[in-house]
């Protein structure tokens, strides 16, 4: 079945450092790929998405590119802020379905 | 934007008792809501799909008699953990979508931490 694998956390960075959170997936067909973020005490929020190969999703300085050849969707940000501290979830979903398949989540801690 | 609210955010209950978690869509109607569970250091796992006015659809391995889901209105779904045991302690989160009008965007609640002692 479908699955999503994320790097384990926590990822601890200093402010303005470069961020990469790895995500790879296993799925039949061509799913849409998502990154969700969960800030402390809040629900999951959609951060960015990509619906087909080579698409790049971007939002709030974060980027991720749908790489079909490596079945990856790594999350990157050039300069993190303390306010980016949260748990980040990679997920996939097949077109026409509302069911999401999540990775385990990666906690990011950014210190001043 | 659309908001999904869960209540309670944290609950502690005694082993053997039942506990109810509510999931509300605050500014849209949702014919379908989803319940997920997350154990520490594991993925969010879909437990069941809650269908307004009909029975929920449970994922394989999820006990429907233990995790009762009621979707009595277009804005409210409830998850009741019956005869709770310590192994039911987990993070439960719901999601809902306004449907095609929103491009099938999915909104999540804040989640509920259940601790069974």
Secondary structure: elements and pairs:
The complex is a heterodimer of chains A (112) and B (117).
Chain A: E1 3-6, E2 11-14, E3 19-21, E4 23-26, E5 32-38, E6 44-50, E7 56-59, E8 62-65, E9 75-77, E10 86-93, E11 101-102, E12 106-111
Parallel strand pairs in A: 2-12
Antiparallel strand pairs in A: 1-4, 3-9, 5-6, 5-10, 7-8, 8-9, 10-11, 10-12
Chain B: E1 4-7, E2 10-13, E3 19-25, E4 32-38, E5 44-51, E6 57-58, E7 67-73, E8 76-81, E9 90-96, E10 107-108, E11 112-116
In short:
The complex is a heterodimer of chains A (112) and B (117). Chain A has 112 residues and is mainly beta.
Explain what this protein looks like in three dimensions.
The complex is a heterodimer of chains A (112) and B (117). With 112 residues, chain A is mostly beta strands. Helices cover 0% and strands 50% of the residues of chain A. Chain A has no helices and twelve strands. Chain A has strands spanning 3-6, 11-14, 19-21, 23-26, 32-38, 44-50, 56-59, 62-65, 75-77, 86-93, 101-102, 106-111. In chain A, the strands form three sheets. In chain A, strands 2, 5, 6, 10, 11 and 12 form a six-stranded mixed sheet that branches. The N and C termini of chain A lie far apart (41 Å). The model of chain A has no long low-confidence stretch (mean pLDDT 93). With 117 residues, chain B is an all-beta fold. Chain B is globular. Chain B contains no helices and eleven strands. In chain B, the strands form two sheets. In chain B, strands 2, 4, 5, 6, 9, 10 and 11 form a seven-stranded mixed sheet that branches. Chains A and B meet through strand 6 and strand 11 of A and strand 4, strand 5 and strand 10 of B.
């Amino acid at each position: 079945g479908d699955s999503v694998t994320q790097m384990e956390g926590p990822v601890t960075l200093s402010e303005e450092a470069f961020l990469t959170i790895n995500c790879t997936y296993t799925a039949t067909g061509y799913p849409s790929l998502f990154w969700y973020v969960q800030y402390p005490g809040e629900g999951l929020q959609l951060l960015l998405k990509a619906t087909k190969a080579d698409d790049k999703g971007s939002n709030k300085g974060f980027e991720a590119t749908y790489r079909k050849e490596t079945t990856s969707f790594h999350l990157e940000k050039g300069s993190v802020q303390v306010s980016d501290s949260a748990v980040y979830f990679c997920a996939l979903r097949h077109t026409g379905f509302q069911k999401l398949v999540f990775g385990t989540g990666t906690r990011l801690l950014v210190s001043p | 934007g659309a908001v999904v609210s869960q209540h309670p955010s944290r609950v502690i209950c005694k082993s053997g008792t039942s506990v109810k978690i509510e999931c509300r869509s605050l500014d849209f109607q949702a014919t379908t809501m989803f319940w997920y569970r997350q154990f520490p250091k594991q993925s969010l796992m879909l437990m069941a799909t809650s269908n307004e006015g009909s029975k929920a659809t449970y994922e394989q391995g999820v006990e429907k008699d233990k995790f009762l889901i009621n979707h009595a209105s277009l804005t409210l779904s409830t998850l009741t953990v019956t005869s709770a045991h310590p192994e039911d302690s987990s993070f439960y989160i719901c999601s809902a979508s306004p449907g095609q009008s929103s491009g099938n965007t999915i909104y999540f609640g804040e989640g509920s931490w259940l601790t069974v002692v």
